[in-house]
Structures
1.
Amino acid sequence: MAFRPRAFRWPLVTLFTALTGCGSESPTTTKPFTGPSLSVIGHGQTTVRFTAELWTRGNVAYTTTWGQRSGTAVGNAVYLWNIGGNTPVMVDSLIVENATTLGDIQVSDDGKLLVVATERANGSIVIYDLTDPLKPSRLTRYQTPNTSNGVHTAEVARVDGTLYAFLSIDPPDAHLVIVDLSNPENPREVMVRNMGNPFVHDVFVRDGLLFTALWDDGVTIWDIGGGAKGGTIANPVQIGNVRTAAWSPSAGGSEAHNVWWFQDAAGGADAKRFAFVGEEAPGSGGSQLNSSNGDIHVVDVSNVSAPREVAFYHVDGAGTHNFSVDEERGILYAAYYNAGVRAIDVRGDLSTCPADQKAADGRCDLRKMGRELAAGLSNGQTFVWGVHFDGSFVYASDMLSGIWKLTAATRP
Amino acid sequence: MRFRYPRVAIAFAIAGAIQLIVPLAVRAQMAADSMAPRDSTRASFTLRAQAIGLVTRLDPGPADRAYTEGYLAQPLIMAHGRVLDGHLSGVLTLDFEGLTLERGQLNMGAYGEGYADRRHPHTYLHEAVAIASGAFWRFGVSLAGGKGFVPFGTDDPMTRPFAAYPVNHHLAQILERYVVIAAARAGPLTLEGATFNGDEPASPGAPPDASRFGDSWAARATMTPHALLEVEGSFASVTSPEIVSGGGRDQHKWSVGARLRQPLGPLSDALVEWARTDELVGDVRANQFTSFLAEGSTSLSRASVSARFENTTRPEEERLADPFRYSRNPTDLSIIGITRWQIGTIAVSTPVSVRHADIAPFVEVSYGHPTEQLTPSAFVPQDFYGSTSIWSASIGLRLGIGSMAHRMGRYGAGVPNVPGGTMAGSQHVH
């Protein structure tokens, strides 16, 4: 067979194109925040593991850990911090065996129990007695076939006086498991239901209503005893659903990640009207630790059977994660990953605004409404997973470096 | 642990079964071959069994450890039959890696289906495809359906000269799906279009989710401008490959490849390919992965010497307690990093044929250099492996019995013509 070099000409052009096309890409960067800051009071640093969620009670903060760092350090630790002073000081740690990510943590409302979720393989919750908050005593590790996929979040809430844990279980077959913690040494499963597309990521429980964040299925509100629809904790009855908008019109689904049904202590006509939904979208051209997307969506739930989105808050080049709300002052604190922490005024009517403060789809833009109060850790050097307002200070868990203590925002 | 010995026993049982089945198959093939020239409308049937026994050392691997392991890799039984002068044919490939490679095969940079730094086992029913072929005007046409390869990308690594898979396997091929393929061929041009299910296999024994059939599609054009050369370009739109139930990141995939069809100078075979996969959430591109790969083989005395270079980026996802496994449900649809793998591989084998068997002892050495593409990254190769210089070496034996009249990954008119060789609509036999 004769060899004819001309036959190879365009494949060579293709090859050149291919070689030069093997580039990389960079994530979108955030714009600097120019308003008031949530000032740093202190920094409890740890870089052995990636930090995940946090919770505080009194002078103690508990932070969980995530993934794998430095080759062998996996997210199997809970760190205990003394936060009585300006700088959080690590005082102890708990290790959960056969775990690689402890994604969620919460102290019960009576301060007696600490509940830690283990994600990925060996999904479970680990329950500790907090008689001595600095020396948690393990009561049990609750693990069943219904939790083994991995517990993404474990929300601890009281319904009709009984303490329950609401476990959002990872796919395949994402589902919600509700566990009765009346006897914390022997938790009892009271409900399992498939939900979420493809995830059920978090819940919020208040006044006998259950709000579930179902990713592309948006947020569903269930009656579990307070919705007058015959629902119970063992048999929730769906009342309403809202598909919140995507941060970008081309981004597709709701990516509903977390919910907070706000009840303004100041009262008024709008006191129980709004729920805030966190949208967690992957960053554009990046990965965890350097890129994120997703807005805060304001949902009017005055008619729980027909909730509707009325407003949103957007940060360019960053996405939100978990919330903590100062309901006394009407301030929402949102973890914003690569954009740090944002404080937003959520008191009053969030659904009404002039035309120039609306997006094209008619929703009010909280930024244009002047409701952005302050930001912290917004220099792009942190990746904030969670926030917790303890009544005086704001604590932020930074995946890269540990826990930060910040001043709280003030109303104008 | 308690399953280890039964699996070894099963592996030996497979080897035994191959020994029993293949002589029968070879006789069937010989009978069919001897009949074919006299009456081309008669049925033909070929059968091949093959496997690779090898020992591999990876140094360093995860957690800065060296690993040395032995396997029976790629234990396959492949059958191809045709009737009605080739107008109706079928392909069946059984893959027993689920029994012999459940923990995965040490393979530098490999990833996919929940395995990383080990190649995952393929499904037991690797291919089962029925093909109807014919001629329409000046075109050869075919319609194929079943479980098998999607017309996208280049030839499967299983059919190429290396035991170690390239990192880009999940960028450059799509396989083990329920698929329907329409193909047309005229002269040097071959066009294929297909629809299939996007979900990747969940385990060796898990079938695709039939309810998702049709949620993904692919198209490939192949040109043979010269008898020496075959060039393909392809695109695939794959819905939620990683999350089987749907709702995960979607993929848009591109591939361009050129392969040498016949020996050219010192080269006995060669392949150059470029591939790109965009991962999408809605229509927003979340990540992009690219690959460039070049490989070729030459003969030196009785030995075949093959070399490969690839430059591929791979996604990193959260590892489990077993550092070779990762979660197939990425947290919040985010990955934890992107690693660029630059790997050079050299393989030397000395193939010999004994009656109907082909035996090829081989030695294969790879050097890899992984680096993180994004900073900060939750996956830093230097930290995870303890080094960014990684060596891998394998020694082993390829064993095959019987022959195969089928080019793996292409069906019916999707097999390109040899210029000046076959007629439109004719079956290309390897």
2.
Amino acid sequence: MAKGKSRVDRRGFLKGAAAGAAAGAAAMVTPPAMAAIDAAAQPDAGQRPVVSPMTPEQGARLQAAEREAPAAEPQTFTVEDAGSDFMVDVFKTLGFDYVIANPASSPRGLQESFVTYGGNKSPEWLTCCHEEAAVNIANGYYLASGKPALMVTFAPAGLQHAMMGIFDSYCGHIPTYIVCGDYLDANERRPGTDWAGHSVLDPAALVRDSVKWDDTPVSLQHFAESAVRAYKMAMTEPRGPVFLVADATLQESPVPNRKALHIPKLTLTRPPAGDSGAVAEAAKMLVAAENPVILAGDVAHDEEGMRLLVELAETLQAPVQGGGRGMPNRHPLSGGGNVRNADVIIGLNEVRFYGLLHRFKDQQVRGATLLTRPGAKVISISSFDLYMKGNYQNVDRYTEVDLAIAADPQATLPALIEACKKLITTERRSALDERGKRLAAASAQTLERIHADCVNGWDSSPISLERLALETWDVIKHKDWAAVGAGGGRLWNNDKFYRTQERVVGGGVGGDLPMAIGGALAHKKDGRLCVALQNDGDMLYVPSALWTATHHRIPLLLIMRNNRAYHQEVMHLQRMSTRRQRGIDTAGAGFPGTTILDPNVDFGQLARSMGAYGEGPIENPKDFRPALLRAIERVEKGEVAVIDTVTQPR
Amino acid sequence: MIKQWAFVLCMGAGLAATASAQDPKPVVGQVIGAGAKAPGGDVEKGKTLYRTSGCYECHGTVAQGSPRTGPMLLTPRPFEGFLRQLRRPSAEMPPYLEKVLSDQQVADIFAFIQTLPKPVDYKTIKILQ
Amino acid sequence: MSKPQPSKIKRRRFLTGVLGAAPALGLAGALAPGEAAAAQAPAGGAQQADGSQKKSIPERSLESAETAPPDPPRQTVSNPGSDFMVDVIKTLDFEYIAAVPGSSFRGFQESWVNYGGNKPEWITCLHEDSSVGIADGYAKMSGKPLLVMIHGVVGLQHAPMAIYNAFSDHAPIVMIAGNQLGHSAHDQAIIVRDITKWDDQPSTMQGFAESMVRAYDIATSPPAAPVLIVANGELMEQELPLSERAKIRIPKLKERSAPMGDSGAVREAAKWLAAAENPVIIADRYCRTQAGMDALVTLAETLQAPVLDRGSRLNFPNRHPLCHTLGGGPAVRQADVILVLEPTDIFREMYADPDVADPRVTSKLKPGAKVISLGLGSTGITKSNFYPNTYMSGYSTPDLDIRGDGEATLPLLIEAIHIEMNGSNKTRASARGQKLVEAGPRLLENARRAAAAGWDASPITTPRLSMEVWDQLKNEPDWAAGALSAGLSAWPWRLWDFKRRYQHIGGQGGGGLGYSAPAAVGAALANKAANRLTVGIVGDGDYNMQPAVIWTAVRHKLPLLMIVHNNGGYYQEIMHLQRMAGQRSRGIENGGFGCTFDPTPNYAKVAQGYGCYAEGPISDPKELAPAIKRAIAVVKKGEPAFLDVVMQAR
């Protein structure tokens, strides 16, 4: 049967109530030729319908109908004011800079609207070759800029590709905003492709356990409201990804009545702070402590968060472990202290709390031993307590605490700092300062030792990771640099909030490369030199992300940590085989399934194939620095550069 | 399943008028109920209609009303207003058009309601004090 | 988690186990030892010179194991795992445990009575919708969770509506579902994952200990909600040697403090409220404790603002001069600043969306009015799948959206308002308060006048029944309403005198019918220790969903007066059908189709059948007072009583 645009008013299907009567009246109108055939085929009342073959006349008429547009029925070929234009208007009120996607047919209306109607600006559409890359570029962008990015895909397949990235968003509390095309109306689905490939009754079901909120709007007004609400949900502490279905028919149908549509205002939720009584109690314990330790997870949302965390540490002269970008890693109070000696331990959004307070053996018989000393007090301030789901186990193991405060740590720090200050007498102040001096001395010593240890294997080939990090540092320290992936740890001075974007995410591999690209995208406008130490196994998941970086002129320096293996798994298998007393030969042909040898991947070539500058393999440490300088020159001109440095496994 | 309705509580006699600027305007010349007088109503028929048309569901069997579903109907009112409310209801009352209740039938119901006992003075009820 | 020791089960015992357990497991054709030996005859082994096979050591021991007579199967278990589970549960604060028995937790049930001594007391229920519904009413009345045992899979399939009501209504409940034999699944919790706050399926005893404590923690920390643990049946029934048990650590639970609203936001809210001409306070699901109610009274009095109680909980004493629930609509229309505490649906507070054929959404507020939302609930749990029903309708924007627990934040808000209450703010407030106080008696008078309409009618009017009950209830030293059906048209709200937080606990949170009777039973259970007379007025359609629940009240001698609002049908649905018929101008006499109880069940006989004292049907209002008196006398003697009252629809 000829498929002209159906006269069933699409508007009528997904209508607001206003169009109700009209839609009811606009019933399916059959082209005259078809009507004749239908009439011929109608059974008489009371008779069972007979399926009979067409007469030659009927056949001829059918053929004619399929060649010509029936005269009485004008076909609609164009649309003014498509629904997805309105959707773009909605998204523009939310201030997105980028929409990141691998294209697909069910979101095609939206794509066209973003690019043409929306001027491909605020947001700009980035082209990706895999949805996993798209989500993680969005994740990296948020980490570096503090702003959520839009990611567009389709259900089911694109979404299935994206799932690991979305899980990273979820575990990392990253508010990536996912829009997913779908064909809700069965009438609208092209046979085959659209049914299997682009239609799901409940697309969000695939990711519901790992997004904060989802909706499937059935009208444009509904879309406007849910789009704004989704943004609000994503940015409410604890933050997390959200998911919105953009039905294809809604995108492609004309807007019924623009004047009746209203884009609601966005009001962000003010984050929850710690109960003042509990905060006072915490302050008491912390001020009185002889050996307090601060275990910081993802605390700082922005520079202010870093400033507050430092102020807390300095007020108490307490060491801070972790903290990621929330704590300058060369600060005298950074990295010190020991939970074994601590009398008071406070965890701030610390997802790995259990692991930090226990020693867990991965031996044949696994087990955990509590590391803290008897009588040690444990305090927890975490917004993650306010929101969790079953199924995924990113909640980690249950940790016993003495004081549990459900709140956003950054929102609580001002009150906590004030409460501590109030309790610190002059006498106590000098005792705390003494401790601070001791910690600073220990920290300086540790830093020195770390540097001293770097000399081990300094000239080794494959190149030692310390050599790699220090050579790089020697050059980038003179620039306005940012690590958008793995960095040099304490060998690089993370003195500003943007120096690093470390975050505990979902535990999958393959996200580092696109996250680095997303971070670099955010830093582009500030002209920063973005650098990441890039693992080989990780790069091989979605290497096509490199093309996205070169195509969109995102300058980025990737220094490979190419140990030619999924080395983590190599170590796991080593462990298994020694337990079973049968050993494996990792040096030779490599253990099946883990090493990436024979052939060696030529990452320099891979990079060049994607339009990036590539060098390598470099196995001699002496060759590294000149290559680094050449690469940086390119990156500063705006290119992507990959140096394939072959490194020690660890 | 029943969804709990969060009605704004309408207290007191009279109908809640929430006509918005967007209410459809009646066609000129077709003002509903204007000047209508109750054509003689049959009380017995009205009693049956009050039940079978479902009036009692929201207004109670003795038209005592209920705060969440429909006001008391026992205070005197003109027939024209009564008819208009059935034909073009304000608030959330469902419509009763001529197709389902003729003007005569409306008059019958109206007549029946007039025969219902008026509420006693609440001050005379001990347990209401 | 600790891995069990390398298995000591030798092949012999494995086969023995198979033989011994064959009848229970229904294994056909279990091998006799000799057969087993033959079947397992080793094919390997070195060929001897004489042609025989030299048997290797494993083969020899196997053969001897399989030809020697097997150990007799063990018939007893000395230290079943479920004894330990009982120990874990006893570390947590449960007053009762409620259950319909199930084979999937038979081990646990036996431990409960024979090891645990039936303390806390086991409440026998006849349907899981009831056991969870009882837990819902209990939790809202007492503020504590009940432990509910649920039979694996099939029992859990009975429960979701009640779980959903509790989830939507933020009632803390801890549920354990068994997982064993013919009642198990890989992921049982998926049945209710979208309507619980968290779930887990521990596979060891250490895991169970941690998960139970965590479950209690999560269920009771605001925003409270039901939590499910799936417990392995085999673990319950297997031996857990005391030496093993001693190694397991049961974490200690510390109550988690609820978050407060961000102090900056609270100060801003205070400024708006203090400077307002007509501030209004709306409280929905705010009140958990008496202190919370007292704080709200203080807030209202400080501000001299009217309080509208939406009734998801009893938030405010209804005869307080500032309680203006009766004058709600006009108050909201005139307000310039509105504070909403723990809203269920902020959209409905701001907009009207009438149920007519052509609905137009209109704002309820005057232009320029500002809305402040303070709460944890609606953004706290966000299980998206059910959000359209649970707690959000249209998206609407409060001007200030403060995320924090209402009760925890109120002291801070009151303090902040105090600071602002000076000069003109104070004068204005006094004048306003004066007017409010004067208006109060008029509103009450209007209510009384309206109540008088149809006073002597039969069927009995809702105000008549409400006031006949009140007339006797008010003389009781202590009373509570466990359920007041929606069909009562809120007459108790208007005319009773609610003073204490526990005197009403709201309705079904999720709109599910079948809530009220179990909730009333649960509320009575919570009140049993205090011997507090508990009234439940339950719609007949509601009662018919779980009629057997009254038996549990009889069995456990609960102080419950249950009254069935017998209007002969599902009146909500009758009105819906009437509306449809009216909109379509046809069949208006068919409103009762499929909705009417014809013949009408004799509820008194039903209750008597379950062993309950019961009277009815009562259709003459004059008979109410003596019947209620008799019923109350029965309750005071220590048993529930039941009345069937034939009433107006609304």
